Amino acid sequence: MKRDLQPCQFGRRASAARLASTAGAALIAAAVSVGSAQGQTVTLAQGVDPESLDPALDTLITSVGVMMNIYDSLVWRDADGNIVPGLAESWEFPEPDRMELTLRQGVTFHNGEPFNADDVVFSYQRLFDEDNPSPLLTSLRGFVDSVEKVDDYTVAVNMPGPRATVVPTLIRVPILPEETFAEIGPDAFGSAPVGTGPFEFVRWDKNQQIVLERNEDYWRGPAAIERFVVRPIPEDFSRFASLRNGEVDIIANVTAERVEEIKGDPGLKIGTVPSVRNMFVGMQTAEPPFDDVRVRRALNHAVDKQALIDVIMGGFGRQNASVCTQTLFGAAEMPLFDYDVDKARTLLSEAGYEDGFEIEMLGPVGRYTKDKELQEAIAGMLSEVGVRVTHVQPEWAEFIRLWVAEEYPMHLIGTGNQVVDCDQHLGYRIHGPRYGRYYQSDEVDALVEEQLREYDTEKRKQILADIQREVREDAPWIFLFDLVDIYGLTARIDWQPRPDEMVWAYDISVSE
Amino acid sequence: MADAGPPLLSVRDLRVQFGGAEVVRGVDFDVRQGETVGIVGESGSGKSVTALSIVQLLPYPHARHRTGSIRFAGTELVGAGPAQIRAVRGNRIGMVFQEPMSSLNPLLTIGEQIVEVLRVHRRIDRRAARARALELLELVEIPEARRRLNAYPFELSGGQAQRAMIAIALANEPDLLIADEPTTALDVTVQAQVLGLIAGLQKRFGMALLLITHDLQVVEKMAHRVCVMYDGRIVEHGPVAEVLRTPRHGYTRMLLDARPSGGPATVAKDAPIVVQARGVDVRFPIRTGLFRRVTGYLHAVRNVDLAVRRGQTVAVVGESGSGKTTLGRALLRLQPSGGQIVFGGRSVESLSRQAMRPLRRQMQIVFQDPIGALSPRLRVSEIVGEGLRIHRLGTPSERDRTVAQALEEVGIDPQTRHRYPHEFSGGQRQRIAIARVLVLRPSFIVMDEPTSALDRSVQAQIVDLLRDLQARHALAYLFISHDLSVVRAIADQVLVMKQGVVVEQGSAKDIFSAPRHTYTRALFKAAFDLEAARSGGPASSEAGSAPGPATAPNTPTPVGRP
Amino acid sequence: MLRFLLIRLAQIPIVIAVVSLIVFVFLNASGDPVQLLLPVEASQEDIAQMREALGLDRPLLIRYWEFLVNAVRGDFGMSLRARRPAIDIVLEALPATLELAGAALLIATAISLPLGIMAAVRRNGFIDAAATVISVLGQSMPVFWLGIIMIMVFSVQLGWLPASGRGHWTALIMPAVALGWYMNALMARMTRASMLEVLGQPYIRTARAKGLPEHMVVLKHAFGNARIPIVTIWGLQAGAMLTGTVITETVFSWPGIGRASIYALQGRDYPVVLAAIAVFTVMFLIINLVVDLIYFLLDPRIRRS
Question: pLDDT tens-digit profile of B6-63?
């Protein structure tokens, strides 16, 4: 019966009335979304509801994705990954540690408040409030020291030194209307935000739906769709069922086994994009047995990564022996460690572990696609060379605590990247002046510092390639693969997913 | 009587089968208008099933009548339609059952339970029905009838509840009243009153009465004719006096002889005292009000002295609520009390739980209800051996031997010790309960109504067994009972209790031959007046307050029916 | 009665204090809300600053004491993640949970009682067999699976009901059935057992001997008595149902307290967890109170003592 319908009309009152008469069923689908009777409403389902729509409070990528439809940043990245102007029309670096941006004129917030430099200064400076620290500050620290007004449409960004990735870093800070925020206060603002972005906030039924409506006066021109609804559906299966039932148009994190099912349904299709996320098995390189590079290389040879991709990930994944996901700026192809059990055994013998060893591996369950299966398969492969793995699989909160505390010698984890630049991965994964854990190398640290100061793109790429080579040889992780983000879409949706895990509805159009 | 026209109720070749087992095997009898017929038999004889068949109250279709006809006032009731049978039930045939408390709906007021039966059979409004219910309660002589209308069953005594049941049964002035063991669950003095009430009402309404009982005394007192049932058949029938005086069937003779006989063992004057109690006193606090403050005490046992010697039985006699069970529990230290209790020469009233434990083995109790006392989930060997295990006596194989011996001693085949309690009869279960106590080799046993739940013939056997065991092991018994014929057969000393006080105390011989206290005399009269009658003479002439059978009218009296 | 009510009300803060202490200790023994709040690249400095700003740098017992003092006034503190009053987050979700639990209770009660009564009256008949199947299925199938199977059949295959969300009454059907299913099964079984026991009681024989029509015997006399133990089970299950909302609300994307609390728990947002537990506790105690009141109304033995 479902196929008699245009899937996305399912769920609106007018069509519900029609259904009741045409379909023999006594029960009809719920009019869950508020949507107008006609027009193009696109509904996105994701796992969790934002805590707040104040960007200073919620930095979860799913929440940021919603916010980026409401707000603009000074700069933006298009669907192809190019950095493009946002609320700043242009920028220059009068000093290596000072950036000046010229702001777009004639832009107004959704409520009519005009946009100017005061809003930019306000949006940045509030993050530095020590009494009310923002998790977003973590992303700025070390890159931006302060933002000041030069004139009404010029602002200056002061940095602690030359910072090659400062421009994409600015993407992460949405611009809020200073006066409106002061007027209604942070609580109310976080529940009913006002921005300059492509969609205006309409309503938020907590844990139920966020309804956004097209901003007809958007400075880039109005979006193709009229309405964008975001619904939290925590269960994978329910999310999938809602898509098949036509209650939602876009779902993220589709598992590989659902792909065939979606492909087989004429009303649905999949959208894929190589992700910014890279999966790997970390090792505590400061302590035996992983202080010996031969052991680390041995383990890299002992794991059949292609089999993991083919069997567990359903073919969605790309082997990568670089510290950087291949979608990132500066990423370079590195020669893979071939799957060779004999070589692995030989290396282990040379390191004095001819009988292998016992080891505990920390890993999350349910955080990443197939994380549990991956851990089990890897443990199975390692047992072939005598490495006997005991799993430690606490829930996420405890996992993070143990991971930060470096309590276990091995762990499965994945790193994402909001800046879409190699640099952020280096920061995560290599212990240096910033925050990485489990692996430290003086040579690499020096190179990491150098690339960060290098504004020349080509030279910087060279340094980044050197780093990746160096790290590949050091093999501080069992290199696994880059993920592919898989979205389920209803057939009428025309949208190319972005690698940064955000659903930017401005890019979406609908063919009826 | 024989020429009084067609019988009101005529049962012919009635058979009842439960599953494959036939429990009533071809029964014929008649009840005429105004007549009282008694059906006597022990449990399992099929007498109650016969009674329930008449109004078709058996669990059909599990129960089946293979053959049989029950004609009531010209209508066939076997296989009658639901509407037809409902028109008879509670209307033309009233029923009174054994357990008045459980036969009344605990959640409805007495008034409502009477009003209901009135309104379902008559076009009558609620007010009129209530007025009639009040009349009925007055008729069955319930004190403060108006207040009792709004009382719930739990607020009535057993006797009052049975009166209420009678009121329900008589509400629509039935032609026939079936009373199934109507007094068995009641205290002796109350029994006599209730029987008197039934007889009086029967006379007044001119209705027929079918009286089902195991108690020959009741039949003697009430019935014109009697049918003796045994194993699903009527083995003997005829006028009461005739059947009782010259019983032809062996079973009838057995029934007549089944009353416990013989006397207690003689006890040496200087036999050592096993238990001695001085000034035993038990009070239960009464709490009332918002803060549950103790506002008074219920004095359950007041200042009782007693002594039980080796090999002696001291009986405590009294009606329910007289404090006899509480006294027994106090002696065993199962109930805190005032006064002094000496056991085996040692003062035990202030001993802690811990200190009592080694003595526990020597002081045991046997309860009235052998079904409730035995855990249904345990095998007999486990039940009997439980005490040995708890007191860590002997090895497992020694225990098994002890259990087998004890079972043999109480007359249970030791081969059957691996069975479960439900596979045994009531009498056998009581024997098992006694064996359980016996294995511990106690010196003192409290017998709390050990025979009251048993059939008469079984009672006599248990009494014999107890006497036998007492003689063999020199046991001291405290024998709690309301059944005076049993007491007479076993007790050496008797305490008569009323409302917590010992009103009379002395040797059994003295008390039975010359009771001094008025309460003792009332108790004895209620219990024995009919027994005396058995040997001759109509009961009514001797028993002042207990009426004889109502005279059956020669012509049926029309009963008013709206 | 008044005394009884007062005792019950006095229990509420005690229960909340005990439960919250346990939760407090547990939540602080594993995971760290600050690490979860900040991106993984957070430096020790970031973490320390955030911890201080949220007041999490102070000793556990002092924080617990403050929590208790404030909780008495209905203030459960600010959500660590949303930075607004935790109790608001929970109370926003309360109507959805009440709606779901209410509907589930209604369904479970409305189906199980007639089913159990019929099964007992027509023992070993068709309805009895059906009731047995329903009981076994209901008690052996986890809510999670039941939910998924229902979504598969009624949303994906038949397209009759929405798979997720709240708003239209049709969206309530599946979650309510899933949540009430176990209770329905248990209650049907209990009703049957209780009815069978009562139907064997002498006063039922009396009712029949009075010539009452069968419906009066079954409903007025038998069910009138059988419902007393059923009320006990009803109360216990209604309480247990509150915990069932956690899974049901997750499977069906129902915006209630269960889901809010599990999400808060995952993020170690303990003010929200504690507020949710407090609200659950109050609801639980209210149910108990209602059950006691029902007893009071139904059973004269309690009423008159």
Answer: 889 999 999 998 887 888 999 999 999 889 999 998 877 888 899 999 999 888 888 8
Rg of chain B over all Cα atoms, to the nearest angstrom: 26
Residue A344 domain-assigned (yes or no): yes
How much is the pLDDT for A23?
36
* B-C Cβ pairs (cutoff 8 Å, strict): 81
The residues that bridge with A149 in the sheet, in sequence order, are A155
Helical spans, DSSP H, in B267-414 = 324-331, 353-360, 370-373, 380-390, 396-409
Domain that holds residue A399: 277-482
Using CA atoms of B256, B259, B263, B265 in order, give the dihedral in degrees to the nearest 10: 130
The CATH number that applies at residue A472 is 3.10.105.10
- In the block, tokens 């000046």 appear at A100
Q: Give B396: exposed, middle or buried? Use CB within 10 Å, 0-12, 13-18, 19+.
A: exposed
> Taking CA A464 as the corner, what is the angle to CA A458 and CA A466, rounded to the nearest 5 degrees?
110
ipTM summary value: 0.83
Same domain, A498 and A457: no
- pLDDT single digits (tens) A188-233: 999 999 999 999 999 999 889 999 999 999 999 999 999 999 999 9
- Determine how many CB atoms are found less than 10 A away from the CB of residue A404: 16
Q: Is the same domain home to A287 and A242?
A: no
Q: Hey, is the C-beta of C134 within 8 angstroms of any chain B C-beta?
A: no
pTM over 0.90: no
CATH of the domain at A234: 3.40.190.10
* Residue C268: exposure state from Cβ atoms within 10 A (0-12, 13-18, ≥19): buried
Q: Give the start-end residues of each E strand in A266-386.
A: 268-283, 318-319, 357-362
Q: Tell me: the pLDDT tens digits for B73-103?
A: 888 998 888 899 999 999 999 999 888 888 9
| Spatial CB neighbours of A411, under 8 Å, sequence gap ≥ 6 | A281, A282, A361, A362, A363, A403
CB-count exposure of residue C65 (10 Å: 0-12, 13-18, 19+): exposed
For residue A14, is it within any domain? no
Question: In this predicted model, what pLDDT tens digit does every residue of B453-476 receive, in sequence order?
Answer: 777 778 888 888 898 889 888 899
Judged by DSSP in three states, A489 sits in strand
What is the rounded radius of gyration, in angstroms, for the C-alpha atoms of chain A? 24
Rounded to an integer, the average pLDDT of A316-337 is 95
Domain co-membership, A349 together with A299: yes
Same domain? For A43 and A187 the reply is: yes
Of A391, A372, A392, the residue nearest A312 (C-alpha): A372
Q: Is A214 a domain residue?
A: yes
Read off φ and ψ for residue A103, nearest 5 degrees. Answer: -90, 155
Any idea of the CA torsion for B143, B146, B148, B151, to the nearest 10 degrees? -160
CB contact under 8 A, C31 and A28: no
* Rounded Cα distance, B103 and B186, in Å: 14
**Are A158 and A101 members of one domain?**
yes
Q: Are C222 and C195 in contact (CB under 8 A)?
A: yes
Distance to chain A for C190, nearest Cα, Å: 32
Q: Which residues of C touch A30 (CB under 8 A)?
A: 161-162, 165, 167-171
A67 and A165, same domain (yes or no) = yes
Chains A and B touch (3+ CB pairs under 8 A): no
Are residues A162 and A52 part of one domain? Answer: yes
**Total domain count for chain A?**
2
Alpha carbons C161 and A2: distance in angstroms, whole number:
11
Phi/psi for A278 (5° steps) reads -120, 135
- Do A322 and A442 lie in one domain? The reply is yes
CA angle, residues B227, B230, B232, in degrees to nearest 5: 95
Note whether residue A263 is domain-resident: no
Which chains, if any, share at least 3 CB pairs under 8 A with chain A?
C
Nearest to C205 among B57, B88, B154 (CB): B57
Which helix (H) or strand (E) covers residue C11, if one does? helix C2-29
Query: Looking at the predicted structure, is the pLDDT value of residue B109 above 80?
Result: yes
